[in-house]
Amino acid sequence: PHAPVKLAYYKLAMQHHPDRAAGTDDAERFAEIGAAYAALLGEHQQQRLEAEEHDEGLAAAAPRDPSVPPKFVPAFPRWVYHVGDVLQRLPQQFDLWLQPSHASLIYGHVRASELAEALAIFEEMRREGERPTQAIYEMLIRGCTLAMRRVGPGQRADHLTMNLLRKARELWADMELVQRPRDYWTYNEYLRALGKAGAVPEALDLFDEMCGSVR
């Protein structure tokens, strides 16, 4: 489908997603939105995409022992996390001083869980021939990840998560097309998307690629 159809789908699906909506009819409405979008996408293409994703291993890896709680081990000293919190708030402060840029507008929409609006700005940039920055791609991939429903062991991704994973893949490929660099931050954002959607084999391959290419 054309970009406006995709953006409308993202907005409606996120609005009626059972994890976010409290209405009793939202689960049914969410399923209807997925079915309508699949019909627009084309039954044949949808089946092909789902078969590819099945082959890539959307079923997650074996579960860990639930009796053993995950252990958080800080990777850096405490002051590093404090600096990170400060840096995370900087874009909001800059918006008070400077004319809003495409990057700051996208950042604001992602923070507000308005992924469709963020993607609309991105599509406008691409239509106008602009070359999005590395940070814009990272923010949009993060927005896709945040909007996904985590796929657990033996579970299958819902239609929104599957389509958001496709969008993250498109952003990753487009980043290469416009020759934007990929560093550890970029790889980590994409790894989170793959992991949350249950694409574990693909994530492991990407991790190997990161270790071999990023210095």
- Helical segment count: 10
Mean residue pLDDT? 79
Note the beta-strand portion.
under 5%
Shape: globular
Low-confidence stretches at least 5 residues in length (pLDDT < 50)? 58-62, 94-98
Task: Find the structural class using helix and strand composition.
Answer: mainly alpha
Gap from first CA to last CA? 39 Å
Quaternary structure state of the chains depicted: single chain
Radius of gyration: 18 Å
Largest sheet: none
Order of helices and strands, N to C? HHHHHHHHHH
Q: Percent range for helical residues?
A: 55-70%
Counting DSSP E segments of at least 2 residues, the number of strands comes to: 0
Protein name: J domain-containing protein
InterPro entries: DnaJ_domain, J_dom_sf, PPR_rpt, TPR-like_helical_dom_sf
Keywords: Repeat
Organism: Calcidiscus leptoporus
